[in-house]
Amino acid sequence: MFGYDWPRLHAALNDLPPALLLTAVLFELASVVLSRPAFRVVGFWTLITGAVGGVLAVLSGLQAEDHIAHGEAVHQVMAIHERLALITLGIFAVVALWRIVRENRMGGTERGVVLALSLGGLGVLLATAAYGGKLVFDHAAGIPTPVLEAEMHERAEGHHHHDGAEEGEEQEHAPATAADSAPAGVADSAPAGGHPHPPGTPPHKD
Question: How far apart are CA 46 and CA 33, in angstroms?
Fold first, then answer.
C-alpha cells in the first residue's frame, strides 16, 4: 500500500518507538535526580506511546523477515536482531504495565527497581539498533537483488563525467600566459625571442 512493502514499512515504523523509549528513560532518570515529579509524568506517557509503537515495529519486522532475500550471514544477524527486539519489547511492556497499575502507589524502592529495569531495557534497545544497522549497512538487507546489482554496476563505472568537468574547470581557471594576456596585435607583433612593439613602430635593432 502506498508503495510500501513489509521491509519499508518496518523501516518507517522502526524510527520513532526507540526514540520515545529512550526519552522516557531519560525523563524518569531526570525526575529522580532533580526531584521533579512533572518529568515523571512526561516519562510515563512517553513510555506508553513508545511501547505501543514498539509492538507495531516488532510485528512489521517479523513480517519483513519473510520478504527479504538473504543468505546465511544475514540470517544469523537477523536472528540476533529479532531476539534482542523481542527482549526489548518484553522489558518495556513489563515496565509500562507495572507503571500503569502502580504509578500512583510506588515507594522509593519500587520506583528504583522500575528505573533499573528501564535502564536495562535501554541497553538491550541500543544493542537491537546496532544489529539493525549491521543488517542494512553491512549486508544491504532489504534491498532487492536487482536494485543492488544495478547499484554495484553504477559504482563500478564511476563518475567519469565529473572528471571531465573538473578538467574543464582547471583549464578555465589556468593562469593566462604573457601572450594570452597581451592586447590583440601586440602579441602578434612580438619577434621570436624579443620584446613586443606597439603597432606602427619602425623596425630597429635591439
Answer: 18
Judge whether 64 and 9 are in contact, CB under 8 Å.
Answer: yes
Give the C-alpha separation, 86 to 140, whole Å. 22
Q: Are 46 and 24 in contact (CB under 8 A)?
A: yes
Q: How far is it, in rounded angstroms, from Cα 22 to Cα 40?
A: 14
C-alpha cell belonging to residue 180: 594570452
pTM (2 d.p.): 0.68
CA distance 174 to 62: 59
What is the C-alpha to C-alpha distance for residues 97 and 103, in angstroms, rounded to an integer? Answer: 10
- Convert the pLDDT of each residue in 47-67 to its tens digit: 999 999 999 999 988 888 777
Taking CA 83 as the corner, what is the angle to CA 82 and CA 85, rounded to the nearest 5 degrees? 65
Is residue 71 classed as helix, strand or coil in its secondary structure?
A: coil
**194: DSSP letter:** S
d(CA 24, CA 182): 73
Residue type, 171: Q
Amino acid at 49: T
Alpha-carbon distance of 127 to 116, in angstroms, equals 17
**Residue partners of 91: CB distance under 8 A and separation at least 6:** 117, 118, 120, 121, 124
Full DSSP string of 51-62: HHHHHHHHHHHH
